[in-house]
């Protein structure tokens, strides 16, 4: 399997409170949630996105800002009474989330771009970010290179680091609810994969700075133990473990970078505009839409110019 496809196959994916509590993360989450909920309602089956009931538990109290933000927009948000929480859990909520069949959702987006919007896709590896300015008519380059932003010539962002995760793909059609437990040094989750004939993602790990794409038997055991303890119905002959995956979340100290930069293009005497949009960590599906909208908003004038000239 190609390295870059591993991040996506391994992604659950869902909308969860896994993200940070800073202003950017809260805003991108909110935009992403509204977008995915709307997509689930209008075109969920084609987009492989579905409303799903969800429970989230924290072993340590989340910040007041995080709770206030979630309570403000999550559909059916309800705090779970303390006496109903499992042992060791400090805080818990019920709400309606969105689950995403990550590999098929990506294909849906690609099809939409190419067939509905006429986007031409060119696959290739650029040796430097400036190489993405393919010709004189390339005005704006969006840099969405994920983990590669750490080493890519012209970017070399030392704040970037991978956060490894291992998951199990299972067949467990009896599991219909999304469940997460944010532990002190672990992350346990069960995500029913929508429109997949009963596949369920069992996770996981959040290993900062670990960059191996290997999978490990002891991690598989740990995932099985933790998820079965959290959802006892998983411990049944109806649950079949299909395979293990690992992936590297493209993380960044201080959160994702969504910003515009002007560079001089060597040997041409020209300036180029780069819009950076990388470092989504474990939230590229849930927060990616919000990040993308803000990235595009940094070059509104340039894009209007392009639309105008293509209409001439
Ligand atoms: C185990 C696991 C579980 C996850 N679960 C969830 C979840 O439940 N919800 C959620 O929201 N997110 C989840 N994620 C995170 C999500 O998968 C990422 O945030 C998302 O994939 C990041 O997308 P991206 O496009 O920014 O980066 P990437 O997916 O890493 O894509 C970067 C792209 O840039 C390309 N590239 C890099 N360098 C170059 C170059 N020099 N030239 C050309 N192309 C280049 C790469 O080939 C790649 O295609 C999970 C991730 C993992 C690993």
From TrEMBL:
Any one Gene Ontology BP term: D-amino acid catabolic process
UniProt GO MF annotations: D-amino-acid oxidase activity; FAD binding
Coiled coil (residue ranges): none
Keywords: FAD, Flavoprotein, Oxidoreductase
Oxidoreductase listed as a keyword: yes
SUPFAM superfamilies: FAD-linked reductases, C-terminal domain, Nucleotide-binding domain
Required co-factors: FAD
Keyword flag Iron: no
Binding site for FAD: 126, 145, 182
Residues covered by the FAD dependent oxidoreductase domain: 27-294
Assigned GO CC terms: cytoplasm
Residues the entry annotates as binding D-dopa: 189, 249, 282
Family (UniProt): Belongs to the DAMOX/DASOX family.
Name assigned to this protein: FAD dependent oxidoreductase domain-containing protein
Natural source organism: Penicillium salamii
